[in-house]
Design a protein that fits this description.
The complex is a heterodimer.
Chain A: E1 5-7, E2 10-13, E3 19-24, E4 31-37, E5 44-50, E6 53-57, E7 64-68, E8 74-78, E9 87-94, E10 102-103, E11 107-111
Chain B: E1 4-7, E2 10-14, E3 19-25, E4 29-37, E5 43-49, E6 55-58, E7 61-66, E8 71-76, E9 85-93, E10 100-102, E11 106-111
Parallel strand pairs in B: 2-11
Antiparallel strand pairs in B: 1-3, 3-8, 4-5, 4-9, 6-7, 7-8, 9-10, 9-11
Classes of the chains: A mainly beta, B mainly beta.
Amino acid sequence: ETGVTQSPTHLIKTRGQQVTLRCSSQSGHNTVSWYQQALGQGPQFIFQYYREEENGRGNFPPRFSGLQFPNYSSELNVNALELDDSALYLCASSLGIQETQYFGPGTRLLVL
Amino acid sequence: ELKVEQNPLFLSMQEGKNYTIYCNYSTTSDRLYWYRQDPGKSLESLFVLLSNGAVKQEGRLMASLDTKARLSTLHITAAVHDLSATYFCAVGEVNRDDKIIFGKGTRLHILP
């Protein structure tokens, strides 16, 4: 059974650019959540998708958007990148909204 | 707005000792998670607690939930060096937005 995978592993962008991060869920999981973790901080919830619909959203501006596909993989898009967007971006998949979350290895984004 | 407080934020303890990490939250929740994170790594799910009085144990770690007191504890029994990591609790907010809020984390250092 394949675990949660994320791509790319590392990314460097400049301010104002746009980025797309990808997450492949664990087999059979219909729920994907995205988190931002700044260095030395706890993860901040961005949003969650359940069966292709956004189920919950944290305090992030609209330039953070997402998508979940019919195979339950997911994308996180960030437009108009800012320096403060530099962080580790984690996705987690689960069998349902209240179930155990399995995290991917993360994507480290650096915005210059 | 849901707030999650963990204490202590840093804990250094000897191998073989017992200790407890506390997680308090400010409003009604329907789920509480405990995670472990090793330096430079992603998060590993430890426990999901869904109901008042829930208790779960895995090896030397035991988690409990008191929804009336809005308190969860993570108890470490006879600590070993391999348990050194940062431990996060996270709470699911019960409202339309369905956010998941993390505590700041407890950095646990176990001395041989």
